[in-house]
Structures are given as structure tokens and as C-alpha cells.
Input
Amino acid sequence: MNKKITNNQLHSFHLVDPSPWPILTAFSAFLLTFGTAGYMHGYATSFIVKYSLALTTYIAACWWRDVLRESTFEGQHTSAVQAGLRLGMLLFITTEVMFFFAFFWAFFHSSFNADTGIGGTWPPFEVAIIGPWGLPFVNSLILVTSGAAVTAAHHFLINGNRQHTADFLALTISLAIGFLYYQSSEYRLLPFNISDSIYAACFYITTGFHGFHVFIGTCFFSCNVISNRKRKKSNKSSSYRIRVSYIILAFCRRCMAIFIHCHLLVGLLISQQVFKKSI
Output
């Protein structure tokens, strides 16, 4: 086992220094949640949401900068630390599956057991659903293309071609920004809001959290691009960091893209073929 001996430390685990970022992240996340809820209910303006989102992004960048410094320059990410990071990402993926499973359980339960409160049909009478061949189809193509770009970047990373790795990762970031733009455009064009029915609530919550994950993944990839371009040589820790971010975030993006667009296709199929007879 690779051991790091610092200040009479004879074990291979990293004892982190005191940092202001956890408490500041908690504060900015609370402000973001509070501001978003207030904005949705008409008690606050969008300024709080924009300010807290910018603050959260800045703090995350500073925190990741410190982690990069610890792993790259200080050599604190030993084999024991990397094993802990792998386990942490595995647990993260497990929680993500459970997180989105709950939303899709709500959607399918409501669709196959339409309550009388929504007219006994799915989608509810007052909701005008959107087809899957407009912006949802464009966003699906963007996600598939970004997945291919991440796969290519991972392939070049394994072969030691850092220039092509950075280029394809930059392409992935550009596609992710395009996805977020089209997602926000779709929200502006939708004829229903989150409080209209269970269908609208499931749609906005699921797609909204998916877009939030894409945003976080974009920030993650941006940090890797900056780190990859600044360092002329690759070491074990940096290669591990980039490879884990590629595999884990690409997996999350592909799985959520499949789930989201199955949501749209199933909703359209049910509304047009199954429940149309009961209208």
C-alpha cells in the first residue's frame, strides 16, 4: 500500500486541513433552495436564485481546486484514499438510482391508476401534453452525442493523448450547455406549470433534477479540462480523477436520458392508445 508520511503520519489516509468550503456550501445551498421555493410561490424575485446559484458554483470551483491541489501537488490521494473515493462514487450511483426510481414510480403509478381527482384519465383533461419529436428529441440527440464525445475522450485518455482528451471533453461541455439552453427553452414553451397536476409535477421534478445533474456534470468536466490543459504530464492521481469523472457522469447522463425520454414516450403512448377510449 502506498503510504503518505507527513507530520509524523504513518498511515495512508488523508487527514484534511480545516476548510471554509463545507459551511459556505451549506449556506449557499440553503439560500438556493429558499430562493427557488420563494420564487416559485411568488414571494421572491429571481435575483436570489441567480445569486445563490453563482455563489454555489464559485464555492464548488474553489473546493475542487483544493482537492486538485491535494491530489496533484501534495500527493495525498494514496491507494487507500482512492479506494475510498471509488466506494463513495459507487454509493452515490446507488442513491441516484433510488432517487430517480421514486419519481418514476410516482409517474407510472399515477398513469396506470388514474385517480378520480384528475378525471380518471391519463394525462389529466386540463393538461396539454407535448410530443416527443420536438425539443425532447433534439435534447435526446444532444445527450447521445455528448455520450459519444465522452467515450472518445476516455479512449484518448487511456492511450495517453491528452490533447485529444481535452478537445473531446470541451465538445462534451459545449453539448451540455446546448442541452441546458434547449431545456430552458422547452420550459418556457410548455402550456402547463408544476402545480397543474401530478403529471406536470412528475415531469418538472424529473426533468428539472436531470438538468441540474447535467449542470453539475458540466462544472465537473470544466475543472477536468482546466487541470488537463495546465499539466503537461499525467500522473496516476490525475488520470484516475479524469477517468472516474468520465465513467460515472457519462453513466448518470445516459441512464437519466433514457429514463426521461421513456417518460415522454410512455405518456404519449398511454394518452393516445390506451386511455383515449375512455374519453
Observations:
- The helical segments are 21-40, 46-72, 79-112, 135-158, 162-189, 198-230, 236-274.
- The CA atoms of residues 118 and 124 lie 5 Å apart.
- The two ends are 68 Å apart (CA to CA).
